[in-house]
């Protein structure tokens, strides 16, 4: 079947200048190599360990901002391309929000859970991140809640949230502490 490649940030979120993150590319069941691109520019070939290849950004600067994707090659032939991953580098001036989950960290498959990202700063929007996903969920503006109904095993993982002001000059918060959801 067709190979699928995932690209994601570990840990996810907007990175402060001087901060660090890792771009991860994973491919199920392949043993080829990954080439990382920023826009249309080839950055480097990544060595795999297991089915994941990692590219570290340390001491981030505004130059690291941009759109990244991975190509997966076997024998020099590109077999698959990942989605595009947007990397943002911004000053983090707001305090870190607090992430909680109801009814709790461990739930049974089929249950409904609610993530709540609470922040002291008024009129902010917040994103919910799940490590390993390239897209964040935008939380509802009123409560900073995100409802996940009928959770499955695939919803297990490490969640965090990050908020920003709704004003013209968008200010970002630090990323919340992580929270592990276990679906049994």
TrEMBL record:
Residues 97-180 form the Ig-like domain. One of its GO terms (biological process) is immune response-regulating signaling pathway. The keyword Signal applies. Keywords: Disulfide bond, Immunoglobulin domain, Signal. PANTHER family: MHC CLASS I NK CELL RECEPTOR, OSTEOCLAST-ASSOCIATED IMMUNOGLOBULIN-LIKE RECEPTOR. This is IGSF1 protein. It comes from Orthonyx spaldingii (Chowchilla). The gene is Igsf1.
């Amino acid at each position: 079947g067709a190979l699928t490649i995932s690209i994601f940030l570990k840990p996810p979120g907007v990175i402060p200048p001087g901060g660090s993150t890792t771009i991860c590319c994973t491919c199920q069941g392949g043993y080829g190599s990954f080439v990382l691109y920023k826009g249309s520019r080839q950055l480097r070939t990544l060595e795999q360990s297991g089915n994941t290849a990692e590219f570290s950004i340390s001491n981030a600067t505004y130059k690291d901002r941009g759109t990244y994707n991975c190509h997966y090659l076997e024998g020099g032939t590109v077999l698959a391309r990942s989605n595009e991953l947007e990397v943002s580098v911004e000053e983090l001036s707001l305090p870190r929000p607090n992430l909680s989950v109801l009814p709790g960290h461990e739930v049974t498959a089929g249950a409904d859970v609610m993530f709540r990202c609470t922040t002291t700063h008024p009129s902010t929007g917040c994103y919910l991140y799940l490590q390993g996903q390239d897209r964040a969920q935008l939380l509802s503006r009123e409560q900073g809640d995100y409802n996940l109904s009928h959770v499955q095993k695939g919803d297990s993982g490490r969640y965090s949230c990050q908020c920003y002001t709704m004003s013209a000059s968008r200010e970002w918060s630090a990323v919340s502490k992580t929270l592990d959801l276990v679906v049994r």
